[in-house]
């Protein structure tokens, strides 16, 4: 198993290190094997191929209205439209995803992560369900199939790792939907990626790390072995936001509020839910013994280099303790 750390191509992530070579050297010094690099909507921004082990493809949160011709919320610049909706048309969704895959392939990564989900501002702030996971998964399969169809043999140039979230789409909570999605893909160069924090966000019952590990192993242990074998990567982090989410003071009581204000509240809400904390207990080793992934990414949100060092070392001690 290769252990990686997350980083993005954006200046706020790279500037503390000074160069990509120093960023890689820093993470190797902590016992890691490489970097999983989030690429940008407009390209790879000059990241050298030799510092990249894997990539995370750009992600937009509410692409379903474009795909299905639904009502569009908000007024955006062209750049903001790509960031929030994936473009301004159904054709944009396909062509942009195709470009993200092509750009990623220039770095020769082991895989590229794709968020298999959709959510609207109303869903984040109000708890509403807009599309249903079945519809999201079938629409995503259509979109990815079309995007990769032009590549040789109809296969993506990068192995696609489909990542779970707690919104509608891939959650690992419905076996029938897992089978439906897998059978809807027209290509074979793909796998699943488990994000532990995202799976923990599907419940409000966990109050500590033992609760979290019990929930994770219960859900994942209930998956058929052939599904678990399809989970080739793990994003490992802890999220214990359940108690906060049980207090429904976040519910969206003013849908007439300016959309951009609501969008900002939605982003802040998401950051409180998805905490990206390190595991501290060796119980997290149970998860890896169950899943046996090929890749594990220590995925954190870090304040600075020392915070990054502390979180990575904390979780690595937990894994090896």
Automatic annotation (TrEMBL):
- List, alphabetically, the InterPro entries matched: Xyl_isomerase-like_sf (IPR036237)
Q: Which Gene3D superfamilies match?
A: Divalent-metal-dependent TIM barrel enzymes
Q: What is this protein called?
A: Xylose isomerase domain protein TIM barrel
Origin organism lineage:
Bacteria, Thermotogati, Synergistota, Synergistia, Synergistales
